[in-house]
Amino acid sequence: MSLIITDDCINCDVCEPECPNSAISPGEEIYEIDPNLCTECVGHYDEPQCQQVCPVDCIPLDPDNRETEEELMEKYRIITGKA
């Protein structure tokens, strides 16, 4: 399942550079996560890096984009081109 950024976001800019898949970008009002690029850092790290650095804890799992660990790993392989 990918992650989302809630309205509690304070636009502090710390999450965007931490994303290894470039899934986080500025939205109209707050940062947004592209669910097609978010792998919850599977393949890169043991934990989602954006959640680790967020000072207001506004990056929960997105209940509308549920994915298994295997699906996240497959997405990682496609995004990175690693077999």
From TrEMBL:
GO cellular component terms attached to this protein's record: cytoplasm
What Pfam families would the database entry show?
A: Fer4_7
What keywords sit in the KW lines?
4Fe-4S, Electron transport, Iron, Iron-sulfur, Metal-binding, Repeat, Transport
Q: Which PROSITE patterns match?
A: 4FE4S_FER_1 (PS00198), 4FE4S_FER_2 (PS51379)
Q: List, alphabetically, the Gene3D superfamilies matched.
A: 3.30.70.20
Q: Where is the 4Fe-4S ferredoxin-type domain?
A: 1-29, 31-64
Q: Which GO terms describe its molecular function?
A: 4 iron, 4 sulfur cluster binding; metal ion binding
Q: What is this protein called?
A: Ferredoxin
The organism's taxonomic lineage, starting at the top: Eukaryota, Metazoa, Spiralia, Lophotrochozoa, Mollusca
